Amino acid sequence: MERPDQRALIVRERAGLADLLRRCHRAELLPLAEVLGIRAQGMGLAQLAVACERTLRRRGAQDLWNMVLRKGEGPSYEDVLADLARRKGVEVSGDVEATERALLEQWIETAWGDMPASERERVWRRLQLELPVPAEGHQALVSMSERLKQGAKYGVGVMALGGLRALPLLFPPLVPLAGVLMVGWFGRAREDVLLPAVLEVSALRQTVRHRVTIGVVGSPSSGKDAAIKAIFGLDSGNVNPVAGSTKAVEITRLPDATALYVVNTPGMGDVIEQVTEEARQVLDLIDVFVYIVNAQGGVQARELADHRACVARDRPVLAVVNKIDTLRESDRERYLADARSKLGVPGEDFLAAAFDPLPQLSDTPIGLEAVRDWIATHLLELGKDPRELPWLTECTESE
User: Fold this and answer.
1) Is residue 159's pLDDT more than 50?
2) Chain mean pLDDT for the chain
3) Residues 6+ apart with CB under 8 A from 394
4) CATH homologous superfamily for the domain 212-398
5) Of 252 and 13, the one with more pLDDT
6) Which residues pair with 260 in a beta bridge?
7) Could you tell me if 349 and 316 are in contact, meaning their C-beta atoms sit under 8 angstroms apart?
8) In the chain, where does the domain assigned CATH 3.40.50.300 lie?
9) Which pTM was predicted?
10) Which of 139, 262, 292, 351 has a 20 to 30 A CA-CA distance from 91?
11) What is 59-94 written as a DSSP string?
């Protein structure tokens, strides 16, 4: 497989602040809520995301009354960010992420020397950079910039999430920054909340981009385990799922990956009510679905219901008819046309494969490259960084 152009591997996140916050885990929003003075106890994910978004905009509105009068709900996050950048003398490029990063870089370069050594070391460890810690801001900025350019190489923290114990979630090294920001950095008191909040948003943006979750769904006889092994090189018999996964849902972080998760579930309909709230959150954040249909069983009522449940989550869904090698060649075209018609899917989201083919037909999976291409393409379209996908990693290492 030809490796995608490196410049296309990271697609800029264009979603607004509200959508970004909804795509986080609830626990990931807690540092931002703390900075904004929000009491998160009793709030669910959706409610907390709305509270954070509205509170941040209201904080920015204190300095943008003209925008408040012009826009009924107050300034947007983009307006708040642009105003903060202008006050700090940072160039506003029109790219939200670039502006956030420029503010962070200015903070490092200008406030670094005024920080106590203990605070500098704390930031340095958050950035996962090698000791010793530079004492001068420019040196720190150079090292930090190199670290950020590494892209997907972010640290993984471990968070206790009730029923889903010790679920590893991606924590970029910038989280949390609020505790290490120095008051001397702020020109005016009103920024002692706004700037830390912007930096928390920047960290969440990296979290969302670099975490990739792929759902593999299908009935017990469809060949999901064979599909996962063929696509990701992940043998379910040798790799333990994330602690807290149930028999109904297995959530596995790929070995050597920082933020690539595979969710193995027999179906999305009945399963949703059987798992913990934390596991349900993971299901809600699946980026793309690969729905496996057994060629021997065909599309029955259960398959149709589960496929519709995946589609209803408003994420890309690829339907793959597995074990196609077990059908007579003369029957395949008719069978595939019938299966696609029943599922009601467009041709670009429908493929045939044999992830564990009969030895006399092939000693390697059939249709594997097309499945992998579909996954990588749709992750890019969602603004995800797919560089930890095993087949892209292999391409990079072989060059």
Assistant:
1) no
2) 75
3) none
4) P-loop containing nucleotide triphosphate hydrolases (3.40.50.300)
5) 252
6) 212
7) yes
8) 212-398
9) 0.65
10) 139
11) HHHTT-HHHHHHSTT---HHHHHHHHHHHTT----S
